[in-house]
Amino acid sequence: MVDQLWMWIVNRDLLITSFPQRWHQPRDDPLNVLESTIEEINSNVADSPANLYDLAVLIGGRCFGTFDRSNITSDGLRFLDMFESSIGVAMDKETHLFSSFRDASQQISLDPQKRQQSLQRLERAQRLERVSTVKGEEEIVWESSHDVRQYSHLKESAIETLLDIGSETELLSEVKDIRDELDMVKMVFAQQQEALSQAHDAMEMVLGTADDPHLQAGTEVERRKITKRLDQNSRAVEHSVKEIDRMDRQAERIYKSMRDLLDLKQKYANAIEARYSRIQAEATARQAKETALQGQETARQGQTLMVFTIATVIFLPLSFIASFFDLDINEFSRTGPEQGMSLSYAAKYIFGIGLSFAVLCILFALGWSSLGPLADTIRYRLFPRGAVAHETKAELEALRELSHREHHTVAQQKAEIAGLVVGAPRSRSWKRYAANRRPSLDEHFVGYQV
């Protein structure tokens, strides 16, 4: 609440003032209207008030000059200086925040040559891995790792600076508070200007104008003196209003700068997010490509293993039969007592039996995935009861549960169709339904339980 001054002039010889006193007001308060008025009258005797109207204008001038810096000797009461100091601190913070944003953006967008040098040093450090015995390599590894860690730390700090908007938001709130308080002070000055305009009109009505023929010579001097005081008060208020407007423009510039900085940070954050999304997509594509190459390598190794397996399957029975024919057995047909068996005889059995067995094994290995369903189909068609008997216990339990549910449903249908009540005989519809009902699943599988 702003203090208000009320004055009444009664019969040109009595001046009554009403001014509220603040709570806990010290005795030597420099804003005390009575003490400041007495001090001004005593300090300037030549320009002392000539009448009550002049005194009223003097008292009003002390109230109008509350914000005048020239009339205030205490630094703690220079209100406009307080606002200007706060705006100066806000300007320093704004400059610091813009500098931090610029440095962080420069760290993110590092010179490509420096970034390439850092990557080369990192690759060299990874190749050495601290196991080289060459003199000086340990120092190179440590230096490379240190540079890379330092660059990574600076980059993370720069990203955090770019994404953090806490300081900007806080400064934006401070500047908004300053502008709101300046608007309130400006409203007080507007009321003072209105009061000064009304004081001008009142003095002209009481003292008259310079063109008034009834104006006395002494009254003309008093009127000029009072008008001079009113003009001084008006100029003081206008000067304060201009100061308020100037500080408000400075605060507005800071406010717009902070909004621009927040907008830049938002755009930069979107750019960083898009950039890292692209990097992540490239890494994912590279990983998928490596996975595909791994799959191709695995398939190639599998094919190679299959070739060796087929060769083993072919030559294993051949070598076994050849070793078997090498035994000294009387039943083998030989050309002579000291000679071996004939080529046709050995080849007939070796290649005939060995290759046949190898071909069967190869066909069985290559066609197992297609032969499995075919064998199951043949087994179910030839041995339906045996197929059911060879079902797993879990499957039979599931079938039995389904049978119980079906039996329960059938019992409910029996009751609904026959309309049975306690003690009532069964109707013909019940007998007809019982004759035509399907057997339950338990009755089908009663002989095939495991």
TrEMBL record:
Organism expressing this protein natively: Elasticomyces elasticus
Subcellular localization: Membrane
Name the UniProt record assigns to this protein: Ankyrin repeat protein
Topological category with respect to the lipid bilayer: Multi-pass membrane protein
Listed PANTHER family: MAGNESIUM TRANSPORT PROTEIN CORA
UniProt keyword list: Membrane, Transmembrane, Transmembrane helix
InterPro entries membership: CorA_MIT, CorA_TM1_TM2, MgTranspt_CorA/ZnTranspt_ZntB
Segments traversing the membrane: 305-325, 345-371
Lineage: Eukaryota, Fungi, Dikarya, Ascomycota, Pezizomycotina
Recorded GO CC terms: membrane
